[in-house]
Design a protein that fits this description.
The chain is an all-alpha fold. The chain contains four helices and no strands. The chain is globular and about 50 Å long. The structure holds fe (ii) ion.
């Protein structure tokens, strides 16, 4: 279980709050799945889709902020968000089409991506904002 701590902060209360909430939601769903041996009927396709929608809303807020601070790598960062969105939504579509896409795998992917993205990419716009350029 990976828990949010200050090392993940991007020095923006609202974005930090969203990162924290998103990570907590993923952890909570994963814990329930693992406790039930991978079977937890209320972690449905709809739940996973709702989580992806949460990610989408969060990305939009982050992208707005990057534009506001004139972050020069905004376009590349948006591409990274879109790649994530595309990867997860295509897996959800595959599940809708009857292919086996275990929720635990999808949630682990989301959590790994989120943590790596915060530390590698989000930290960069945070540093840009801190420099005030
Ligand atoms: Fe981001």
């Amino acid at each position: 279980m990976i828990v949010w701590d200050d090392s993940y902060s991007v020095n923006h209360a609202e974005l930090d709050g969203q990162h924290k909430k998103w990570l907590e939601m993923i952890n909570e769903l994963l814990a329930r799945l693992e406790k039930n041996g991978g079977d937890c009927p209320d972690i449905s396709h709809e739940t996973l889709t709702a989580m992806l929608q949460y990610a989408r809303q969060h990305f939009m807020g982050e992208e707005k902020y990057m534009r506001e601070i004139g972050y020069p790598e905004t376009v590349a960062h948006i591409r990274s968000h879109n790649e994530f969105y595309g990867q997860v939504s295509s897996r959800l579509l595959a599940a809708e089409g009857g292919r086996r896409v275990p929720a635990a795998d999808l949630l682990r992917f989301m959590r790994g991506w989120l943590l790596e993205h915060i530390l590698d990419e989000d930290k960069k716009f945070s540093l840009h904002a801190a420099r005030g350029v």
